[in-house]
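Propose amino acids for all 157 sites.
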């Protein structure tokens, strides 16, 4: 079942009810969801695996918990760092990773890696060659991870 932004226009208490209903139906009927959303906390709550997309391309793919705990792609890192924390002390200490500039037009994406004008680090290769989505080494080897970034190490790179 494709769920395209199913909770974005709802208030928080209704969002929780819809997420719980989806989880219940998933357990009872053995459903598989493709859950598309900008709310990372909701995505993490309902997903087994997460694919992070930037300008229409998957830039990181992996098990939900592991990906949220140790994101590798700079865009995923910025997204995770932007999620507010429920603990006020942790929230005050939270370090955000602001992205540079605006999202470019998908109809005329930047050359090479589409993320290069916005990322904190870009080398010459980033402006010339789009990185492929390849297996990446994760901290402690947890789960399988694929990342599209020239600067991430992995077995197939
Ligand atoms: S390939 Fe380069 S520009 Fe793209 S995410 Fe990696 S470091 Fe940033």
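Proposal:
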């Amino acid at each position: 079942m494709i769920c395209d932004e199913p909770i974005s226009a709802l208030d928080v208490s209704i969002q929780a009810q819809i997420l719980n209903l989806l989880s219940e139906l998933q357990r009872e009927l053995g459903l598989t969801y493709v859950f598309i959303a900008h709310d990372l906390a909701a995505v993490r709550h309902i997903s087994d695996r997460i694919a992070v997309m930037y300008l229409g391309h998957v830039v990181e793919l992996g098990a939900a918990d592991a990906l949220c705990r140790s994101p590798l792609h700079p865009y995923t890192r910025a997204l995770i760092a932007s999620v507010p924390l429920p603990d006020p002390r942790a929230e005050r200490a939270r370090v955000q990773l602001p992205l540079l500039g605006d999202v470019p037009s998908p109809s005329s994406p930047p050359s090479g890696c589409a993320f290069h004008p916005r990322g904190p680090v870009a080398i010459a290769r980033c402006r010339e060659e789009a990185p492929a989505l390849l297996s990446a080494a994760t901290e402690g080897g947890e789960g399988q991870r694929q990342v599209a970034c020239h600067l991430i190490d992995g077995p197939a790179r």
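Residues 33 and 123 are 37 Å apart (CA to CA). Residues 74, 113, 115-116, 119, 121-122, 126, 131, 149-151 surround iron/sulfur cluster (CB under 6 Å).
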